[in-house]
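Students often ask why we bother encoding 3D structure as a string. The short answer is that it lets us treat folding as translation between two languages. Here is a chain of 205 residues written in the first language.
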Amino acid sequence: MTVEQIKIGFDNFSYVIYDKPSKKAAVVDPSYNALKQVGFIKSRDLELVYVINTHYHNDHTDKNKRLLDTFPQSKLVASKTDGVYLKYDIDIFIDDGDQLKLGELTLGFILTPGHTPGGICIVVDDEAIITGDTLFIDDCGRSDLPGGNVNDLYDSLQKIKTLPEYLIIYPGHDYGSKPYDTLGNQKKTNKTLVAKNIEEFSKIP
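And here it is in the second language, the structure alphabet:
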């Protein structure tokens, strides 16, 4: 399994997931500077199979069209709930617990509302989790934007906490003390994961 973390504008992270033997790839949250993702894919002669949006906000979807036009065989993937907000035709609608194959890799999808109504996280081959704007390093996404819900976000974080602690968290933004970390470490140090209940969580600034 290989996950390439690509830093783009406004402290965003985009990702290229690829299976080395088959050279099949997926791009997660293309935005701002698609040249980086396109260049990475072409330089390694990868076949882009999926363009995946963790949620519908423009800073995670802005370059969908550029990727889909450059690699016309690729398919756009989004949750059923957030997909209705996107200005693109969705090829594959994802629900909680769905899986997609990427060569020999398995992409597992977890519905994690709270930042948006239909945010998703992606578990990559039981080794890593791409969390979009649901969970950052040292913090979590906002729930006070349109479509956000603090109770849903708290429940989504509780769902993530049940996953294996060895999973590497790859967030949607570079807002933390490091670009990625294990779930186990974050469960000890991330204030939003340490919170014991919704009352305590909702008071975190």
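Translate back mentally: The radius of gyration is 16 Å. Keep this in mind for the problem set.
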